[in-house]
Amino acid sequence: MTLDNFSVVLVEPKYDGNIGSVARIMKNFGFSRLVLVNPPKLGKEARAMAMHGRDIMENAVKLKSFKQLEGRFDFLVATSSVTATDKNYLRTPILPEHLSRTLEVKGNIALIFGREDIGLSNEEIESCDLLLNIPSNPEYPTLNLSHSVGILLYELSKGIWTGRLKKKKKFQELSGVEKKVLLEKFNALVDLAQKKDFDRRLAKKTFRQIISRAFISSGEASTMIGIMRKAGDAIRRNKDKASKQ
Questions:
Q1: Which CATH number does the domain housing residue 130 bear?
Q2: Whole-angstrom Cα distance, residue 82 to residue 135?
């Protein structure tokens, strides 16, 4: 699947500003298909909130009723802040982190968000293939519309965007070869700086444990290796000068 397989559907949104905010968050995560079911008139607030996502809002598909969704999409995902009891099988949801693993389908997928005040009806949820809930504080479980959209779009797109970031050296994890070189340089530095055998072993063991626990990028490792190399060279030069005096 690609991001173009997904459409964000807002069912009877009350406030045009929310539509603009949704368009903006869609732009943030690389989604472009917006569908509005019986929306209000889009005014200045919508355009102001959309920012660079204004093109998404202006190109949105507008439908008159929820029923028109069924013929346009191959898979409908309803969202709701209400999970109800275990006996209410109509409201048995999945969680956001399970969404990308669940959608092993081809075709167009609709992520459907209900009205700001009452959400989606039981009949609308029943007509969908899947129900999704974003866990939140039970004392106030209803999230802002654009926040809900943002959470789901992040879950769906994070693999793409994190994959691009990890191509940069600063985000690449330390490789086995780099770890070996880093430990060798540190151990050599310890051998130069510490005289007692116990202190040497303790320093080497401590550093190895720190490296094993911490996330160190390839770029950070290169920086530390360079510093250790220069420090070792400086210590050797000072020792050579002291021996010649």
A1: 3.40.1280.10
A2: 10
